[in-house]
Amino acid sequence: MDKIVSLCRRRGFVFPSSEIYGGLGSTYDYGHYGVLMKNHIRSAWLREMVQERDDIVAIDSAIILNPAVWEASGHVAGFSDPLIDCRTCKLRFRADRLEDAHCGKKPSKRPGETSECDLTEPRQFNLMFQTQVGAMEDASSSAYLRPETAQGIFINFKNVLQLARRKPPFGIAQVGKSFRNEITPGNFLFRVREFEQMEMEYFVPPDEAEKWYRYWVEKRYAWYTNLGVRESMLRIREHDENERSHYSSGTSDIEYQYPIGWQELEGIANRGDFDLTQHTKASGTKLEFVGQEGERYTPYVIEPAVSIERIFVAMLCDAYDEEVVGERERTVLHLHPQVAPVKAAVLPLVPRDEGMSTRARTLFEELRRRHTVEHDDSGQIGRRYRRQDEIGTPWAFTIDDRTLEDETVTVRDRDSLSQERLPISGVAAWLDDALQREWRSPKK
Ligand code: GAP
After folding, report:
1. Whole-structure pTM value
2. What is the Å distance from ligand 1's center to 389 Cα?
3. Least confident window among 123-127, 134-138, 164-168
4. C-alpha to C-alpha distance for 260 and 191, rounded to whole angstroms
5. Could you tell me which residues come within 8 angstroms of residue 21 by beta carbon, excluding any fewer than 6 positions away?
6. pLDDT (tens digit, 9 = 90+) per residue, 230-239?
7. Cβ–Cβ under 8 Å, residues 156 and 173
8. Residue 220 to residue 36: CA distance in whole angstroms
9. d(Cα 34, Cα 15) in Å, to the nearest integer?
10. Burial call 306-329: b when 16+ CB within 10 Å, e when fewer
């Protein structure tokens, strides 16, 4: 993980947030390449979940909802972790994770293992961030930053059913920030307090719930392998009964083997009719489906839920490689071309040469209308290739002496390092086509 963190910093993917003020625990800001990569991940998810389907629509609900939403959903009463404080070192630990924690005074020991440790009894700590709405500062004005995007979907069930004229099975998808006051954040972006969730609630007739649950587990797993994540690093783990959330009658995690071990990348849950029933009771608005023949029922919900952060880290870990090429070492990100921040670089071999420089600039202007591409004319060509390898750019188009004679360019492939010549006029079409090709990681 250290190597990934250092590459992210060095190449401007991700920085610790508020750094000039000493940072703020486990909060990060994204630089240019980080933003581009996050955008590509989000687009790939939206394309698969909304754009290419007839049965799923998008929504963008507010972050601060009526606090009654969180009462009804069970978050006010139950969205908590058991916490233990140490009166000696003043550190706070999750009671259910003490075996992974380190004593504040003697880090080689677990909390409670030294005679100086003075631990409190466990108490429940709610993970929702509280805030005030409006000018008054009393209980009536208190509200929460949403800890998941899902509830913003449930409370709009009736709107979508009526306005988008859908009937089960159908889904509502949302991408947006969620906030959790995690007690033990860390491992870079893996567990942060502010993250971007991508959730889809799929409403189905109750007797079809099991079928659709299995369908979404498979579908989501295939999304990762189609985006080049190695199957050897992925697995599906079904939760046993005492591990599941209060609302769930079945949950499977798609896990990735992060450098910190096998961990949840995405969860797929069968939430039953829990949420729609709770909101019906609490709001007095019936959240049910009524068919044309008058049949009525509360749909069950299948929910695939993930954060861009967990995907971002998994994809970087899966892509990172250090190789020796010839005599030199290179660091390379073997990212799937669809998620690579920059799709291609345009490099004039001799930047001072006016013919090369003009052609490179013209090609770059043409390509950037369609894709995120880069023009780089500073430094030796080898160093420019290595810069692109480090940010995972799949192809580089080099304009050289031969271009001036026959209007062709060299295309260099990041993974195989093979080079071929293309007519400069065909580069845009070649790149469009290359981005659609199937891609598999060259890493073992
Ligand atoms: N609506 C259901 C729900 O929120 P969850 O398992 O608590 O379920 C869903 O979260 C997904 O959100 C996780 O699988 C993970 O990808 C992501 N996630 C949760 N907490 C996170 C955190 N603190 N930092 C980054 N991602 C997180």
Report:
1. 0.94
2. 31
3. 134-138
4. 12
5. none
6. 999 999 999 9
7. no
8. 22
9. 10
10. bbbbbbbbbbbbbbbbeeeeeeee
d(CA 176, CA 199): 9
Instruction: Find, among 438, 223, 245, 386, the residue nearest to 314 by Cα.
Output: 223
What whole-number distance in Å separates Cα of residue 311 and Cα of residue 330?
A: 24
- Ligand 1 centre distance from Cα of residue 428 (Å): 39
pLDDT value at residue 45: 98
Note whether 395 and 343 are within 8 A (CB): yes
pLDDT at 184 over 80: no
CA 29 vs. chain centroid, Å, equals 14
Alpha carbon nearest to ligand 1 atom 4, residue: 148
pLDDT at residue 444 in the model? 83
Query: Would you say 407 and 388 are in contact if contact means Cβ atoms under 8 Å apart?
Result: no
224: CA distance to ligand 1 center in Å? 17
- Residues flanking ligand 1, CB < 6 Å: 148, 150, 180, 182, 191-192, 195, 197, 199, 264, 266-267, 303, 305-307, 309-310
* Residue 119 structure tokens: 């631990």
What does the DSSP assignment read for 302-334?
EEEEEEHHHHHHHHHHHHEEEEEETTEEEEEE-
Q: Which of 81, 148, 179, 258 to mutate to test the pocket of ligand 1 (most atoms within 8 A of CB)?
A: 148
* Six token digits for residue 282: 């609490």
How far from 200 is each of 45, 70, 145, 203, CA to CA, in Å?
10, 19, 19, 10
Look at ligand 1, atom 25, and give the residue with the nearest C-alpha: 191
Q: Residue 306 C-alpha to ligand 1 middle, in angstroms? A: 6
Q: Is the pLDDT of residue 139 over 80?
A: no
Ligand 1 pocket test target in 217, 278, 307 with most atoms within 8 Å of CB: 307
Quick one: 364 exposed, middle or buried, by C-beta within 10 A (0-12, 13-18, 19+)? buried
Tokens matching residue 114:
């030294």
